[in-house]
Model the fold of this input.
Amino acid sequence: DSGVTQTPKHLITATGQRVTLRCSPRSGDLSVYWYQQSLDQGLQFLIQYYNGEERAKGNILERFSAQQFPDLHSELNLSSLELGDSALYFCASSPDRGLEKLFFGSGTQLSVL
Amino acid sequence: EDKVVQSPLSLVVHEGDTVTLNCSYEVTNFRSLLWYKQEKKAPTFLFMLTSSGIEKKSGRLSSILDKKELFSILNITATQTGDSAVYLCAVWGGSNYKLTFGKGTLLTVNP
Done:
């Protein structure tokens, strides 16, 4: 158990809908990262937050947004969902700003029908 | 664009065999290279390498980095069925210092 908690584990929804994925980092970790994993693309970096502020951005779509709250948990919001958004979404955390090992949660499997 | 390329994509061996997994990278502002093992869901950390030529070992697993040739290898000796997993290579670097992953090598160890 990495200490990173993600909910829900599975999510099935329809195209055009909006969903929120939640992540609680390991105790004491200030950075939260979101990754998307699909079969053909591998693990793609979406966004990083450090102590409540956005720190780095990757290939995150305009329809996606995230935030980190004062208690350091993070939420990833996905809207106007498309079939191609079906993937495993991982949250990871680390103690500091980056350049260190990340601890991954078990992921949220999103299926868009 | 930052790139991390792993080979082979897939590998099937018998228990007791030794395997070598490869990872090459083209990343600006390179800082370090990491190996992860992904079994069912969450990737779990194996090694972090920052210096060339220094081997990291953990039991039957070992890894080394060559910063001049921009690659790393992960060796697993005396493989066991429990080693079956996807092995991911990742590099810290790029213009915004993000962790970029390769697509992974799927290792299957048959009894």
Summary: Residues 38 and 78 of chain A are 16 Å apart (CA to CA). Chain A has a mean pLDDT of 95.
